Amino acid sequence: MKRKLLPVFLLVSLIILLVPPAPVTTQASHAMRVGLLSPLTTLDPAWIDTDTDALIVEQLFPGLVEIDEEGYPQIEFVSNR
To answer: CB count, 10 Å around CB of 48?
Structure first.
């Protein structure tokens, strides 16, 4: 049994040694990447037509705008003044 596993072990070890490591990035990425089902049409909360628009607006303006059950934007920002 040990003789049968030795070639497999050696092959796996060789593959691990030959595969290059993942590149290390030193700079932080400031890009927001989101997989979308449809193209973005607007960033204005008053003109939201699609789920994609609502998703992006909710990510960009958390705490400022909330979309109600009927799909209309509602202002959520509260000032301390």
So the answer is: 22
72 membership: H or E segment, kind and range: none
DSSP string covering 42-66: ---GGG--SHHHHHHHHHHSTTTEE
Is the separation of the CB atoms in 76 and 65 below 8 Å? yes
Domain boundaries, the chain: 36-81
Handedness of CA 35, 37, 41, 45 (dihedral sign): negative
Which string of b and e fits 51-76 if b means at least 16 CB within 10 Å? ebbbbbbbeeeeeebbbeeeeebeee
Q: Kindly tell me if the per-residue pLDDT of 4 is higher than 70.
A: yes
> What pLDDT digit, counting tens, does each position of 25-56 carry?
666 667 767 777 788 888 887 888 888 888 88
- pTM value is 0.42
